[in-house]
Design a protein that fits this description.
CATH class of one domain in chain A: Mainly Alpha
Oligomer: heterodimer
Protein name (chain B): V-type proton ATPase subunit
GO molecular function (chain A): unfolded protein binding
Distance between the termini of chain B: 32 Å
InterPro entries (chain B): ATPase_csu/dsu_sf, ATPase_V0-cplx_csu/dsu, ATPase_V0-cplx_dsu, V-type_ATPase_csu/dsu, V-type_ATPase_csu/dsu_dom_3
CATH architecture of one domain in chain A: Orthogonal Bundle
Structural class of chain B: mainly alpha
Shape of chain A: elongated
Order of helices and strands of chain B: HHHHHHHHHHHHHHHH
Strand order of the largest sheet of chain A: 1-2
Largest sheet of chain B: none
Number of helices of chain A: 5
CATH topology of one domain in chain A: Helix Hairpins
Order of helices and strands of chain A: HEEHHHH
Largest interface: A-B, 39 and 51 residues
Number of strands of chain B: 0
Largest sheet of chain A: 2 strands, antiparallel
Radius of gyration of chain A: 27 Å
Number of strands of chain A: 2
Protein name (chain A): Vacuolar ATPase assembly protein VMA22
Helix content of chain A: 55-70%
Organism (chain A): Quercus lobata
Distance between the termini of chain A: 19 Å
């Protein structure tokens, strides 16, 4: 009887052990996935930045050196067009939960245009074509409110973009607008990299904790073998 | 009287026409561009340019080079050649040569005013000004708060004074006002230059009217495309177009209401000289438009040298050199950014 109880206890320990091993493997897979995403995002960032710098050079070539140079940057104090929110990790921290949130094109005169994740989703819906700067004028300025909300946000975003470029003039080349979009995409990618890195470290910590767990793992395996026998 | 310039032109202009034709022969050739496009870094570019007329201007520049340094030194060469021609010129050629620089003067004025608005140091701004557009009281521009003061304190004694009559207001200077001021001044300058060339008559009037009309039309297209999606109204846009050129007046009326690049294409394709430009671009695309316009401009500028005894060769030479400097800037940027595959996106060959 006692032997049967010992065997059932060993069996439950084995099941628990197998469950833990499954969880470890899941964490390892998650870690490798996040590492792969991290490296992919880095490549993407590199190519986006290269494209942005070339587009900026192309805009200088098109508009002239006197119209695009560092001496035109505005040194007056002004509110940030884009902010980054860093959330503290909770005790019940869930893997994959981003720590960093981008709040794009939020200025003091436009407090409704924020909420980073929403904006990132919306901006991703705007396809970046060969001429992303070619926006139709707001032909919907008099439309009903039912279809106006996304377009109002879109107009606000376009206005904020134009406002940030206004230091180079109000009639700027489409190439400069294209460069702006590239750097904006690069900024979003940077935030994704930060979040992915956070996820990576978190799963790495979990794996380390699990590997540094109770030292009678070998004993458990022996018991399992006995049970199997 | 048109056709008799051969009798009298060389008396005053013969020496300088020979000089400018000699300078024209010094423009970079196809083999020069091939060598430059294969450079691995900016020091290689400097080495290749040392064998050209730019050599003396770059030889003392220390490494590591920057693309802006290459552009500045190449521009100094152009400035030296221009100053030599200006000091040797008599009227009306000297006035003609001065007209060529008014565009740079306008750019410098706008640079100083914009930089001052952004609280930048005046000395920093002066270093970025184009040397061909400098004048004595340019630093005083930083004091002006609105266009009326700009005119009264500084510009009244400059050649740009007559161009200010259309844009003098007491409104404080801001980004939109400055942009409108820039384009209004440039419009007035082009029209004035056009009238001056018409008064000169002969081959100068004929060739320069073609070149300036092309410039006015290109400006109209660029203003249209750059203002799509901005706060500039259609009326304001229409006011920035010049009152001459192939597109004046009906093309301008149509361009003023365009809302995207395809509508602009639809307007321009009605004019045969511009059909070939827009034929090079696919629908919805505008990235290659600049290069297409530059190529057409270079073609027309090179044709100016086919005829003798006129002043348009001076204008053509200055523009061709500026194009060459733009080419060098683009090649340098592509080499510095390790994007040599994109070199041919914007280089316009001149030969």
């Amino acid at each position: 009887m006692e032997e049967e109880e010992d065997q059932s206890l060993s069996f439950s320990e084995v099941v628990e052990e197998q469950g833990q091993r499954g969880s470890e493997e899941e964490n390892v897979v998650q870690f490798l996935d996040s590492l792969d995403s991290y490296l992919t995002l880095f490549d993407s960032l590199s190519s986006t930045l290269r494209q942005g710098w070339l587009e900026l050079a192309s805009a200088r070539h098109s508009m002239g050196v006197s119209r695009i140079n560092g001496t035109l940057l505005d040194l007056k104090p002004h509110s940030a067009a884009t902010t980054l929110q860093v959330s503290e990790p909770d005790v019940d921290y869930m893997v994959g939960q981003p720590h960093f949130k981008l709040s794009k094109w939020a200025s003091s005169s436009n407090e409704n245009c924020c909420s980073g994740e929403e904006k990132i989703r919306e901006d991703k819906l705007q396809t970046k074509s060969d001429s992303p700067q070619l926006r139709h004028r707001s032909q919907f300025s008099g439309t009903p409110a039912t279809i106006g909300a996304p377009l109002i946000v879109d107009d606000q975003v376009q206005k904020e973009r134009s406002k940030s470029l206004s230091m180079f003039g109000t009639l700027v080349s489409p190439k400069l607008r294209s460069a702006q979009l590239s750097f904006e995409t690069a900024l979003e990618t940077l935030v994704e990299i930060a979040n992915m890195r956070s996820t990576m470290f978190s799963t790495s910590d979990q794996i380390r904790k699990e590997m540094a767990g109770p030292r009678d793992d070998n004993k458990r395996y022996c018991i399992a073998e006995e049970v199997c026998d | 009287m048109y056709g008799f310039e051969a009798l009298t032109f060389n008396v005053d202009g013969g020496y300088l026409e020979a000089i400018v034709r000699g300078h024209r022969a010094g423009l970079l050739t196809a083999s020069d561009y091939n060598n430059l496009c294969q450079c691995e870094n900016l020091d290689d570019i400097k080495m290749h340019l040392s064998a050209t007329e730019y050599g003396p201007y770059l030889q003392n520049e220390p490494s590591p080079l920057h693309t802006t340094t290459i552009v500045e030194k190449c521009t100094l060469k152009l400035v030296d050649e221009y100053k030599h021609m200006l000091c040797q010129a008599t009227e009306p050629l000297s006035t003609f040569l001065e007209y060529i620089t008014y565009g740079h003067m306008i750019d410098n004025v706008v640079l100083i005013v914009t930089g001052t608005l952004h609280e930048r140091d005046v000395h920093e701004l002066l270093e970025k000004c184009h040397p061909l557009g400098m004048f004595d009281s340019i630093a005083t521009l930083a004091v002006a708060q609105n266009m009326r003061e700009l005119y009264r304190l500084v510009l009244v004694d400059t050649p740009l004074a007559p161009y200010f009559s259309e844009c003098i207001t007491s409104e404080d200077l801001d980004d939109m006002n400055i942009e409108i001021m820039r384009n209004t001044l440039y419009k007035a300058y082009l029209e004035d230059f056009y009238r001056f060339c018409q008064k000169l008559g002969g081959a100068t009037a004929e060739i320069m009217s073609d070149l300036l009309s092309f410039e006015a039309d290109r400006r109209a297209v660029n203003i249209t495309i750059n203002s799509i999606g901005t706060e500039l109204t259609r009326d304001d846009r229409r006011k920035l177009y010049s009152n001459f050129g192939l597109l004046y007046p009906y093309g301008h009326e149509e361009l003023a209401v365009c809302e995207d690049i395809d509508q602009v294409r639809g307007v321009m394709e009605k004019y045969p000289p511009y059909q070939s430009i827009f034929a090079k671009m696919s629908y919805g695309e505008s990235q290659m438009l600049d290069k297409a316009f530059y190529e057409e401009e270079v073609k027309r500028l090179c044709l100016a040298f086919e005829q003798q005894f006129h002043y348009a060769v001076f204008f053509a030479y200055m523009r061709l050199r500026e194009q060459e400097i733009r080419n060098l800037m683009w090649i340098s940027e592509c080499v510095a950014q390790n994007q040599k595959s994109r070199v041919h996106d914007s280089v316009v060959f001149i030969f």
